[in-house]
Specification:
Strand order of the largest sheet: 2-3-4-5-6-1-7
Number of helices: 4
Largest sheet: 7 strands, mixed
Structural class: alpha+beta
Helix content: 10-25%
Number of strands: 7
Strand content: 25-35%
Shape: globular
Radius of gyration: 16 Å
Length: about 190
């Protein structure tokens, strides 16, 4: 088995005023919360967004595991739609000590490079800051964090920095070099 060195950068915002919103893209782009926990839809988003960049950790999750995760208080999925078609998503998770993690964020390959990502990240980050407004019993958010890695899209780090996220940790680890699964063979343009 071959391995590759993967650099993981952890980034954070420590106040809502850290968020530097992107300009909304032209056209009919909307961001909507997926309020009904749907393992099928969430797995579709995960596989479609991450299929070409080696997101594999959740591919083996059972239906029950997806359902359990999505039903946890403070877990939200926000989906960007371009003219009614899913373009990408951001998944939030409330954690201890008034912290919210952006667990996943990304765009389907056909939606990349169209200014949707900055808008979706801005919107999702704002929803991380006001998460407690939608969930009784949660403490108002004091910190929003995420991690990105060298396997993610080429513009990911720049987008996070342009939205006001600051680096707080860097790690380099060897990982198994797995093929990008894609949602199905040949789905991504070469």
């Amino acid at each position: 088995m071959t391995t590759i060195a993967v650099t993981t950068w952890s980034m954070e915002q420590t106040a809502p005023t850290d968020l530097l919103p992107a300009v909304a893209p032209q056209g009919d782009v909307r961001v909507v919360r997926s309020e009904v926990p749907s393992p099928e839809f969430s797995r579709f988003l995960y596989a479609s967004v991450g299929g070409d960049i080696r997101w594999t950790d959740r591919l083996s999750w059972s239906y029950a595991r997806w359902q359990e995760h999505l039903e946890r208080p403070g877990v939200e999925t926000w989906v960007a739609y371009d003219r009614g078609t899913p373009a990408g998503f951001v998944e939030l998770e409330a954690q201890d000590d008034a912290v919210v993690e952006i667990l996943y964020f990304g765009l389907l390959p056909a939606s990349r490079g169209r200014r949707i990502g900055g808008h979706l990240l801005s919107y999702g980050t704002a929803r991380a800051w006001d998460l407690a407004d939608r969930w009784a019993g949660l403490t108002p958010t004091k910190r929003v964090w995420l991690h990105t890695c060298s396997k993610d899209g080429e513009h990911a780090m720049d987008n996070y920095q342009r939205r006001g996220f600051k680096l707080f940790d860097t790690k380099v680890e060897e990982e198994a070099d797995v093929a990008a699964p894609g949602p199905w063979p040949g789905a991504f343009p070469v």
